[in-house]
C-alpha cells in the first residue's frame, strides 16, 4: 500500500528538519568520514570517500525531490498514478540502508585459534578469551567497529519461552529410569549428555537440580539476575576493561568448578554476544567478524542461530590448526558444512586459514622433508617453506573439492588464493617471522578489498537507480503522441504475456535438471540408509555412555549438537547420498553470472529482461519517441531495477529449497523419534536403537525418500510461481506507467528540474570515480614495483 499523504508529509517535515543540510554539521560529517576510513591505505581511502560522497549527494537530491513532490501533491484530491509510483520509489530508495554489513565467519573446531586470530586482526592481544586447555569460546561472538568512542558489548539471552523449552528438554534427559541394572546404572552415569545437562542446570539453579522436576525448576528462582529485556549491556573506556567484564560471559565454564561469579550463573542462557569496538584503525565499519564454534548447540534456539549465522556470512574462513589440517574427520565435517553454506546461504567466498604456522619441530620437519633442494638453515626458513608447501597442496585439494560440489563458475573458484598460512602468536612476538609473514596484514587486506568491492557495487547500483527515477520525471513531461502510445501499449501487453509464458517454460526446463540426480540420489539413499544409521548409532565409544546422548538426539528430532560431543544430525546423514548427487546441479541452478547451457536460472530472467527492453526500444522508435527518449530509458532502467529485486528473493528461497530434503525426512521420522525418546528402563539404549531402525525401515518402505524428492520438487515449483507472479506484477506496473504519460504532471515536475540536472551530473561522475579508482590502483602498483623493499603498501594507515 502506498504511504498515506499525511504520513508522507510528516516524513517530509522530518527530512526538512534533518541537520544533514546544515553547514556546520556538514563539516563534522566530513571529518567523520575521514575517520571511518582510517583502516584503508590512502589510495583506497580516496576511492571510498568519492563513492561515499556520491552516495550522500544522491541521497540529498532524492530527499529534496521527495519533499518537493509531496508538498506539491499534498492538497490534491487525487494523486496521478505516475507520481504515486515515483513517490513510493523515491521513499524506498531514501530508506534503503547504506550498506548491509559484511559478515566474515571464523569457523573452526575448538582450539583451532579462531579467537586468537580475531584478537590479532583487531590488534588487541588477549581481548577475546583464549585457552589452550579446554573449549574456550562458549557462544557466537560478533566483533565489529562502530562510530562511538567507547567499547561496548551486548549479551543477548534466551527469551523466557526459549529457556522454558530448554528446561523441559534438559529435565527429560535427567529423568532417571526407575529400575536399572548395575551395569546400566554405570553406563547411564557416564553419559556426557547427562553431565552437561546437570551442569547447565546447576549453574542456573544451584545444587540438587538432578532431583527436581521440570515444574519444580520452573518455580525455582535462578541464582543470577536475569534482566527482563534479556540483554545485558557492558561499556568500557578501554579494551582491557571491557575484556575483563566480558570474559565470564564468553568463556566456557568448566564443570566441577566452584559456583563462580554472578555472570557465570546466567551463562547457559546466553545466545549471542555482540562486541562493538570504537572507530577501528584496522577493521572498517561495515565489517563484522564472527567467531563461530565448530558445532552447534543442544539448545534448539542456539543451534538454529548457529546455522543462520553461518548462512548469513558472505565470507567463511575455515580456521584450521596446522597440525590438523591434513585429514581429520572434524576438518572434513567443517569443510562440508561451509560448502553447504555456499549452497544454501549467502556465502560467496571461502578461504582456508591455516593457523599456528609457527609450531614446527625442526629436526622432525627436516627428517620428514621430501621436497626442496636447498638446505634449510633455520626454523624460520622451515616455517616459510612449509607454508608454501601447504598452500600449494591445500589449494589444490580444496579447489578440487569445491569443483566437485559447486558449479564451475562459482566466484570462490576464481580466487587464486584460497589458502592463508597465519600465526597469531608470531604476530605479537615476531621472533621468527616478520609481521607480513604472519599474514595477518594479508587477511586485513582481504577484508578491506571485500568492503571496497561491495561499496563500489552498491553505490553504482544506487546512483543508477536514482538516475532512472529522474528519467521518469522527464518522461512525464515530454509530448509524444498519446493516441499512438495506447495502441502500442496493448501490443506490448500481448508481447509480455507471450514472453512470460516462455520464461515459465524455460524455468521449468532449468529446474528439470534436478530430477535425475534427485532420483539417483534417492536410489543411493535407499540402499545405504541402514549402513549410515548403523554408523551413527555405534559411535566410537560403542554403547557405553551413549544412552542419554541418543535420547537427546531423539528429543531433538534427530539433531543433537554439543560443544563437547560434536554434532549428530541423523536427518542430514540419512539424506547425504541425495545431497551428494544433487549438489553440483543445485549450485548450478542458483549460480550467478554467465549464461550457459540453460541449467542456470538467472540467465533466463536476464534474457526475459533483455527481450522486454529491446521491445521497449523498438516501440519507442516506431512510436516516434526520440531515439534516446527519457521515457524509454526510464522504462528500461526500471525493468532492471524491478527484476533485479528478484535475485534477492531467489537467494532467500534457496535455503528453504535446499533444506527441504532433510526437513522432509525429519518430519516423517518425528513419530519414531518421539517413540524412542520415551523409552526408559532395562536395555533402553538397545530398545531405542531398535525403534529407530524399525521406524526408519517402515518409513523408507512407505516412500520417505520419494516424498523428500517430491517436496523438493514442489519447492522448486513454488519458486517458479513466485517468480512469474512477481514478474507479472511488476510488468503490469510498468505498462500502467508507459501509458500514464501526459497526466498533467508537468505542474509538479517542473519544480524538480534542478534536482534532475544534479542527478544527471552525479550519474555521469560514476564513471569518473571508477576511472579514478583504476588509475590510483595502477599508480600504486607501479610505485610498489619500483620500490626496492617491495614490502607491501605504504603503512601510513597503521
Ligand atoms: N603456537 C601458537 N599457538 C596459538 C596460535 N594461535 C592460537 N594459539 C593457541 O591455541 C590455543 C587455542 O586458541 P583459541 O584462540 O582459544 O582457539 P579457538 O578456536 O578460539 O577455540 P574455542 O574457543 O575453544 O573454539 C590457545 O592456547 C592459543 O594460545 C598461534 O598462532 N601459534
Ligand atoms: Mg575461541
TrEMBL record:
Using the record's annotation, list all stretches that form the Dynamin N-terminal domain. 104-324
User: Tell me, what is one Gene Ontology molecular-function annotation carried by this entry?
Assistant: GTPase activity
Predominantly, its location class is nucleus
Family annotation (CDD domains): Ras_like_GTPase
InterPro entries xrefs: Dynamin_N, Nuclear_GTPase_SLIP-GC, P-loop_NTPase
> Keyword Nucleus on this protein?
yes
- Protein name per UniProt: Nuclear GTPase SLIP-GC
Task: Give the species this sequence originates from.
Answer: Delphinapterus leucas
Amino acid at each position: 500500500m502506498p504511504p498515506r499523504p499525511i504520513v508522507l508529509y510528516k516524513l517530509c517535515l522530518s527530512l526538512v528538519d534533518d541537520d544533514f543540510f546544515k553547514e556546520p554539521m556538514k563539516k563534522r560529517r566530513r571529518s567523520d568520514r575521514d575517520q571511518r576510513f582510517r583502516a584503508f591505505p590512502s589510495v583506497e581511502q580516496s576511492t571510498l570517500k568519492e563513492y561515499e560522497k556520491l552516495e550522500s549527494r544522491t541521497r540529498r537530491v532524492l530527499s529534496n525531490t521527495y519533499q518537493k513532490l509531496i508538498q506539491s501533491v499534498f492538497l490534491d484530491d487525487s494523486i496521478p498514478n505516475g507520481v504515486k509510483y515515483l513517490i513510493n520509489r523515491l521513499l524506498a530508495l531514501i530508506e534503503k540502508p547504506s550498506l548491509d554489513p559484511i559478515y566474515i565467519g571464523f569457523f573452526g573446531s575448538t582450539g583451532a585459534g579462531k579467537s586468537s586470530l580475531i584478537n590479532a586482526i583487531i590488534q588487541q592481544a588477549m581481548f577475546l578469551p583464549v585457552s589452550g586447555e579446554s573449549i574456550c569460546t562458549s557462544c557466537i561472538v560478533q566483533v565489529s567497529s562502530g562510530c562511538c568512542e567507547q567499547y561496548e558489548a551486548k549479551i543477548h539471552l534466551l527469551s523466557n519461552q526459549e529457556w522454558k523449552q530448554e528446561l523441559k528438554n534438559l529435565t527429560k534427559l535427567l529423568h532417571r529410569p526407575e529400575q536399572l541394572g548395575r551395569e546400566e546404572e554405570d553406563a547411564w552415569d557416564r553419559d556426557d549428555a547427562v553431565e552437561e545437562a546437570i551442569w547447565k542446570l546447576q549453574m542456573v539453579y544451584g545444587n540438587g537440580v538432578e532431583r527436581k522436576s521440570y515444574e519444580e525448576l520452573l518455580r525455582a528462582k535462578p541464582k543470577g539476575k536475569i534482566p527482563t529485556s534479556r540483554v545485558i549491556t557492558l561499556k568500557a573506556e578501554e579494551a582491557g576493561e571491557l575484556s575483563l567484564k566480558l570474559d565470564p560471559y564468553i568463556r566456557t565454564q568448566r564443570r566441577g568448578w566452584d559456583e563462580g561469579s554472578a555472570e557465570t550463573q546466567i551463562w547457559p542462557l546466553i545466545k549471542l554476544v555482540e562486541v562493538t569496538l570504537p572507530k577501528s584503525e584496522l577493521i572498517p565499519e561495515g565489517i563484522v567478524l564472527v567467531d563461530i564454534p565448530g558445532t552447534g548447540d543442544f539448545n534448539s534456539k542456539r543451534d538454529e542461530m548457529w546455522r543462520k549465522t553461518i548462512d548469513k556470512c558472505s565470507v567463511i574462513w575455515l580456521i584450521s590448526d596446522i597440525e590438523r589440517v591434513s585429514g581429520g574427520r572434524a576438518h572434513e565435517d567443517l569443510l562440508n558444512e561451509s560448502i553447504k553454506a555456499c549452497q544454501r546461504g549467502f556465502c560467496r567466498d571461502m578461504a582456508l586459514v591455516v593457523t599456528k604456522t609457527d609450531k614446527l619441530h625442526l629436526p622432525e620437519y627436516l627428517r620428514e622433508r621430501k621436497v626442496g633442494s636447498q638446505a634449510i638453515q633455520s626454523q624460520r626458513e622451515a616455517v616459510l617453506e612449509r607454508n608454501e608447501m601447504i598452500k600449494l597442496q591445500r589449494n589444490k585439494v580444496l579447489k578440487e573439492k569445491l569443483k566437485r560440489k559447486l558449479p564451475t563458475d562459482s566466484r570462490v573458484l576464481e580466487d587464486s588464493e584460497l589458502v592463508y598460512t597465519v600465526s597469531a602468536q608470531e604476530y605479537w612476538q615476531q621472533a621468527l617471522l616478520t609481521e607480513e609473514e604472519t599474514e595477518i596484514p594479508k587477511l586485513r587486506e582481504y577484508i578491506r578489498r571485500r568492503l571496497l568491492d561491495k561499496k563500489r557495487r552498491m553505490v553504482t547500483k544506487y546512483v543508477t537507480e536514482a538516475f532512472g527515477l529522474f528519467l521518469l520525471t522527464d518522461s512525464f513531461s515530454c509530448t509524444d503522441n498519446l493516441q499512438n502510445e495506447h495502441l502500442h501499449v496493448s501490443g506490448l501487453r500481448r508481447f509480455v504475456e507471450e514472453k512470460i509464458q516462455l520464461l515459465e517454460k524455460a524455468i521449468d526446463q532449468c529446474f528439470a535438471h534436478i530430477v535425475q540426480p534427485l532420483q539417483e540420489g534417492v536410489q543411493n539413499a535407499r540402499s545405504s540408509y541402514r549402513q549410515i544409521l548403523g554408523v551413527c548409532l555405534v559411535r566410537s565409544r560403542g554403547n557405553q555412555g551413549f544412552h542419554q546422548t541418543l535420547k537427546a538426539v531423539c528429543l531433538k528430532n534427530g539433531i543433537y549438537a554439543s560443544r563437547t560431543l560434536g554434532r549428530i544430525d541423523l536427518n542430514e546423514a540419512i539424506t547425504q547420498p541425495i545431497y551428494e548427487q544433487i549438489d553440483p546441479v543445485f549450485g548450478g541452478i542458483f549460480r550467478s553470472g554467465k549464461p550457459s547451457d540453460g541449467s542456470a536460472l538467472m540467465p533466463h530472467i536476464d534474457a526475459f529482461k533483455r527481450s522486454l527492453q529491446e521491445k521497449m526500444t523498438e516501440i519507442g522508435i516506431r512510436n516516434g519517441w526520440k531515439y534516446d527518449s527519457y521515457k524509454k530509458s526510464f522504462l528500461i532502467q526500471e525493468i532492471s531495477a524491478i527484476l533485479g529485486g528478484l535475485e534477492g528473493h531467489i537467494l532467500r528461497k534457496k535455503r528453504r529449497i535446499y533444506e527441504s530434503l532433510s526437513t522432509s525426512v525429519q518430519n516423517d521420522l518425528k513419530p519414531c523419534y518421539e517413540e524412542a525418546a520415551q523409552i526408559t528402563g532395562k536395555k533402553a539404549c538397545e530398545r531405542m536403537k531398535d525403534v529407530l531402525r524399525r521406524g526408519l525401515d517402515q518409513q523408507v518402505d512407505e516412500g520417505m525418500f520419494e516424498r523428500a524428492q517430491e517436496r523438493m520438487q514442489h519447492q522448486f515449483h513454488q519458486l517458479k510461481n513466485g517468480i512469474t507472479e512477481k514478474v507479472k506484477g511488476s510488468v503490469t506496473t510498468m505498462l500502467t506507467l508507459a501509458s500514464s504519460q501526459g497526466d498533467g504532471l508537468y505542474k509538479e515536475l517542473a519544480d524538480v528540474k534542478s534536482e534532475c540536472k544534479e542527478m544527471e551530473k552525479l550519474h555521469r561522475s560514476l564513471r569518473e570515480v571508477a576511472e579514478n579508482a583504476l588509475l590510483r590502483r595502477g599508480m600504486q602498483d607501479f610505485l610498489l614495483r619500483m620500490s626496492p623493499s617491495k614490502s607491501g603498501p605504504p603503512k601510513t594507515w597503521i
